[in-house]
User: Which sequence fits this backbone?
C-alpha cells in the first residue's frame, strides 16, 4: 500500500515563529488532507489539497503531486497551534477508494 | 460539513467484555469509516461501512473482533469484542463531505481504556 512519511516528528517553537511541515508519499494520490489533532483528540480539517496551493489565515499548504510531497506552512505561530499535525492520503488504486492512509504525524509545541 | 457525534465519548471497561460505539451523522452519507488510534500512534483504518452491505475490513482487523452495523444512511456502530488492554485506543468514525471528492470529516472520537 501507499506509504506516508512526515517530518519532522517533533517541533518546538517560540510563539511568533514560522514553521514548515513536510509530507512525502510513495505513489499517486486522489486525495490529500492535512489535519490538526487538538489535545482533546478531535481531528480538525485544515486543508483538502491533492494538488496546488491553498491559504487559510496564518496557514497555507502546497502539494506538488508530480513530486509526491506536500508542505504545510504555519506563520506567526500561537500556543493554540500546539498539537499533532497529520497528513493523510488516498491512493489511486481501485481498492483504495475512500481509504485514508495517515502519516505518523508531527508533534508541534509552541511556547509563549 | 456534516455534524458527527459519537457515543460514548469515553469509557473504562474490564477485559473480556464488549463495548459498542455509536456514530451519528446529521445528513445522509454513503460511506462511513472507522479508525483506531492507539496511544501515541497515528490513525489506522479498521473498516469501511456502506449501508445495505457488509463492512469491508482492512488487513489485521476481523469481523468477529470488530463487528460493524450500518442500518441506515446516518448511523453506524462499531463493537469492540472480548476486549484486552491492547484495545485501549481512541476510536473515530468519519464520513465523506459533500463538497470535495472523498474529503473526510471525523467525529470527536471515543476514548476507550481496558483494564
Assistant:
Amino acid at each position: 500500500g501507499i506509504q506516508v512519511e512526515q517530518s519532522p516528528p517533533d517541533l518546538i517553537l517560540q510563539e511568533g515563529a514560522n514553521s514548515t511541515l513536510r509530507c512525502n508519499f510513495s505513489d499517486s494520490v486522489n486525495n490529500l488532507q492535512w489535519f490538526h489533532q487538538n489535545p482533546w483528540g478531535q481531528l480538525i480539517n485544515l486543508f483538502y489539497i491533492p494538488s496546488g496551493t491553498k491559504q487559510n489565515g496564518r496557514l497555507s499548504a502546497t502539494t506538488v503531486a508530480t513530486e509526491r510531497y506536500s508542505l504545510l506552512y504555519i506563520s506567526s505561530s500561537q500556543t493554540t497551534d500546539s498539537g499533532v499535525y497529520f497528513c493523510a492520503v488516498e491512493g489511486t488504486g481501485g481498492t483504495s477508494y475512500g481509504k485514508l492512509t495517515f502519516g505518523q504525524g508531527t508533534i508541534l509545541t509552541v511556547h509563549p | 460539513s456534516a455534524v458527527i457525534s459519537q457515543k460514548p465519548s469515553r469509557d473504562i471497561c474490564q477485559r473480556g467484555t464488549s463495548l459498542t460505539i455509536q456514530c451519528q451523522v446529521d445528513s445522509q452519507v454513503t460511506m462511513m469509516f472507522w479508525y483506531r488510534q492507539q496511544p501515541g500512534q497515528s490513525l489506522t483504518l479498521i473498516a469501511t461501512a456502506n449501508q445495505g452491505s457488509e463492512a469491508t475490513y482492512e488487513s489485521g482487523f476481523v469481523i468477529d473482533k470488530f463487528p460493524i452495523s450500518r442500518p441506515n444512511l446516518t448511523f453506524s456502530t462499531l463493537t469492540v469484542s472480548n476486549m484486552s488492554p491492547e484495545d485501549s485506543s481512541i476510536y473515530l468514525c468519519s464520513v465523506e463531505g459533500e463538497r470535495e471528492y472523498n474529503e473526510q470529516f471525523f467525529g470527536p472520537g471515543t476514548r476507550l481504556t481496558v483494564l
